[in-house]
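Protein modeling request. Please complete all fields; requests missing the sequence field cannot be processed.
Requester role: graduate student
Desired output: 3D structure, token encoding
Chains: 1
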Amino acid sequence: MMIENLERVEKNEKVYYKMKAGGRTFTAFDNSEAFQQLVNKEFKQNDEVTLDFTDTPGGIVNGKQITFHNLVKITKGVKSGGPTPSSGVKSESGSVEKVDWEGKEKRMIRMNALRHAIGFFEINESRMKDAFPNVIPENAVINVARVFEKYIFEEEKKEVVANE
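Delivered output (164 residues):
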């Protein structure tokens, strides 16, 4: 199929790629080979490609269930039969391995918690110079990330009160 449109999107401090091909919209996020291929500008509009992707159910928009088409890998040219969606990721041997979506979500939340823990220390850098004169220890960042992660998985809503 031919790449009809390709764009780099920055939203909420995150970058992803949005591609239109074969009348469908696909996305490539930073945890996929396809994302790196697009960062490296290996493909452009009007290229003939074969897309390996996963389908993930989304929410309901205008009364219709939507499905997200997440790119895994892009290959130049077209295979006979065209692209095939899968519920997994192809391994090096070519077999499709089932994706652990729950585990993947937890890992993404952990990465996000770490990113925000680092941001927490950056914001409070001037206050922490006495406590951490040289380098902030890795375990301090991880402990703050764990607090953020725990907050995300809390089932009951609690009011957060800032310490003064």
